[in-house]
Specification:
This protein is one of the two subunits of integration host factor, a specific DNA-binding protein that functions in genetic recombination as well as in transcriptional and translational control. This is Integration host factor subunit beta. It comes from Variovorax dokdonensis. Belongs to the bacterial histone-like protein family. InterPro entries: Hist_DNA-bd, IHF-like_DNA-bd_dom_sf, IHF_beta. With 103 residues, the protein is α+β, with helices and mostly antiparallel strands. It folds into two domains: 40 residues; 52 residues, HU Protein, Chain A (Irregular), CATH 4.10.520.10. The chain is 40% helix and 26% strand. It is built from three helices and five strands; from the N terminus they run ααβββββα. Strands 1-2-5 form a three-stranded antiparallel β-sheet. It is elongated, with a radius of gyration of 19 Å. It starts with a helix and ends in a 10-residue tail after the last helix. The model has no long low-confidence stretch (mean pLDDT 91).
């Protein structure tokens, strides 16, 4: 599902929202979530999951082409942990309904 799919779903579900209003609502929510993660805050959506920022320490990597050792700097990366209700809902559907991976 893409951002535009979410906008379409929202506009279809709420007849009083125009496509532009639905697009603005989705953009506002995603921007607010992004801003919170950039500031290092945790986002918790009950029944869905939580977003947080994890720290990856610096390490020594390897250039796959030359085999040369390379220093990889510390990184901060977003992390999503699904909530119990989401995990259970996905598990109940089983693998039979999963879409085939894109080639």
């Amino acid at each position: 599902m893409t951002r535009s799919d979410i906008v379409e779903e929202l506009a279809a579900r709420f007849a009083q929202l125009t496509h532009r209003d639905a697009e603005s609502a989705v953009k506002t929510i995603l921007d607010a979530m992004s801003d919170a993660l950039v500031r290092g805050n945790r986002i918790e959506i009950r029944g869905f999951g939580s977003f947080s920022v994890s720290r990856r320490p610096p390490r020594i990597g390897r250039n796959p082409r030359s085999g040369e050792r390379v220093q990889v700097p510390e990184k901060r990366v977003p992390h999503f942990k699904p909530g119990k209700a989401l995990r259970e809902s996905v598990d109940e559907q089983g693998l039979g309904n999963a879409e085939a991976p894109a080639p």
